[in-house]
Specification:
Blueprint (H helix, E strand, L loop, with lengths): L10 H14 L19 H4 L3 E2 L7 E2 L8 E4 H7 L4 H5 L5 E5 L4 E5 L12 E5 L2 E2 L21 E8 L3 H4 L6 E7 L7 E9 L3 E12 L2 E12 L4 E2 L12 E2 L5 E12 L2 E13 L15 E17 L3 E19 L7 E19 L5 E22 L17 E25 L2 E12 L5 E13 L2 E12 L3 H5 L8 E2 L7 E15 L2 E13 L2 E5 L6 E5 L2 E14 L5 E13 L12 E11 L4 E10 L2 E2 L4 E2 L2 E14 L2 E8 L7 E3 L8 E3 L4 E9 L1
Parallel strand pairs: 6-9, 25-29
Antiparallel strand pairs: 1-2, 3-8, 4-5, 6-7, 8-9, 10-11, 10-40, 11-12, 12-15, 13-14, 15-16, 16-17, 17-18, 18-19, 19-20, 20-21, 21-22, 22-23, 23-24, 24-26, 26-27, 27-30, 28-29, 30-31, 31-32, 32-33, 33-36, 34-35, 36-37, 37-40, 38-39
Amino acid sequence: MTPHHTAIDIAATARRAMLVTLMLGAGAAKASVANGTGLTDIPIEQLLNIQISTASKFEQPITEAPSVVSVITASEIKSYGWRTLADLLASIRGLYVTNDRNYNYLGGRGFLRPGDYNSRFLLLVDGDRNNDSLYDQASLGRDFVLDLDMIERVEFAPGPGSSIYGSNAFFGVINVITKRGRDALGPKAGIELGSAGERNSHASYGWQQGQAEMLLSASSFRRDGRDLYFPEFDSAANNHGIAHRLDYEKGDNIFFKGRFGDLTLSAAHVERTKGIPTASFSQVFNDPRSLTGDAQTDVSLGYEREIGEQSKLYAKFSWGSHDYFGQYLYASPDDELNYDGSATAWWNADVNIVSTHFQKHKLLMGFDYQRDYKLNQYSFDFFPSVPGNRAVYNPADPQLATLLNDHRRAVRAGVYLQDEISVHDDVLVNAGLRYDHNSLTTGAFSPRLALIYKIAPDTTFKALMGKAFRSPNSYELYYSVTGDGSQKANPLLKPEHITTREISIERQLSAASKFLVSAYRNSVSNLISQTTDPRDGSLVFENLSQAVARGIEGEYEQVWSYGARLRASYSWQRTTDGVTGAPLVDSPLQLGKLNITLPLEHDRERLGLEAQYVGQRESLRSRLGGYWIANLTVFSAKWIDRTEISFSLYNLLDRRYAVPGGQEHVQDALQQDGRSFRMKLAHSF
């Protein structure tokens, strides 16, 4: 995928929004700063009954959810110094992240296919679908619409979620729940400095009066990047394999959230530009004109209201746009630039009712409808008369050679029903079914069934089974260009399906500790993967046979009276081709996670230590060894009044490690960053 860069640069807008944010708070009451409240401040015995909403679209205790849900909070984001949503997700059991120096890609329970742009995970922001409408991409890096400081918590529900969410809820559902005005009262501003010329500035203002509240924030990110060495290009003609300062990145975003009685209004916008040092898609190596850019805007209006004493109505209307742009340089006598990307827009309506009218039943009934009224893909070569000149797409321009100009529209709609049945005081049965229609492909039924048995007051057993699907998107179906980096369309693609079976036991060992273990088996059919057609060397998406994943996951949590907290997990996963039995590419056999935070010097500061192990895995042409990395963060909100200060070291031991490259790369493995640092300061006025 190659993104479209919008012509509007919002850096100046973001800076003005920061200034306005600070001015709004002049004369406001001083807001005190704490270490951050969140689930890490709650005793373990209460964690078992935390209310979550992602698994069933209504609030329920985490032990009663039809999924083995993980919850990450704002206080953990501070404690571990995470910079992106990808960093946060990499700490969750069973998940792993790779980075190809352009985008972040999320794998779950052994699945991460080359050419997959996170389309098998459904990303929600406050329950609203955030995947774009053309690639179905879940953006996890600096291209995500939110600054992490605006996140209250993240809920991850692994397993099939199509029974209530439809397509893309394949391996799991990620729900990012944002802060409210009451969570960040008054004005606040901060700066960050880090390795490779990294700097970030951000500001926010929160307000509440009675039942009305709002939160406004803006941030601006810049990273100069560093020189990177790629041995595959080590020649005098290619600067001896050194890509000079092409790993740069910059971005800006704005976020607003307001609640006024029964109405909630939110809006978010992000723009991001990223240099490409890898010379992917057969580009000229070490050319500074190689870059990608993306922009996304989401606006949502929500309404909720009690209907009588036993029912509640939820309704949301949202609008979104997502544009991508890629600028590539290919070797040719005319030294042309290739511009490749998309422009998309959609609107969505989602209405549901939750009712307890019938005794021992909790019913969820709803429907959603999405109109993708703009699904445009384009690719053209531009022959600039002035070096550095930038093209605006106009098919009549004689300087342009059009390779792709595809315009489409689509409709996706679904109706769903779920019933949570109290069979006994200690037994719940959760049954759900949804039907989806997609005008680009065939329809699909998605069932789910869960048995939740409270064996003892401190022990919960879950037996889960379900089916999910993912429809092929417009990019996979219709993208087609010839020449360098050629790719073919495949309008005959079918939806891929997954059947999941899982059992889990969660036990509270004491008032200060709990343990969870789960075992699962996933079967995938009609798996969509990007491959090279041997007949002409073009990339193409195809339904490639089947895949099977088996695994066991365990997680342990402990809290100590003096304020320390531990979370550790281990995952063993074996994912193979359903026909040949061969291991899948980019599927590590083992994952290990360790997160520990503890107070220092009478709780004046907190130290957060994170360690992650990713086991050996297959790349496209070889096998990559496993690796350990560790990150360290020291955080304090007490050194200076109303000021938070943190210092982070990433890849603390300066480990050398690599992740698999995709079909578009010459490199079979892509080296990742060594040791780096970040300093952050935020002050409340």
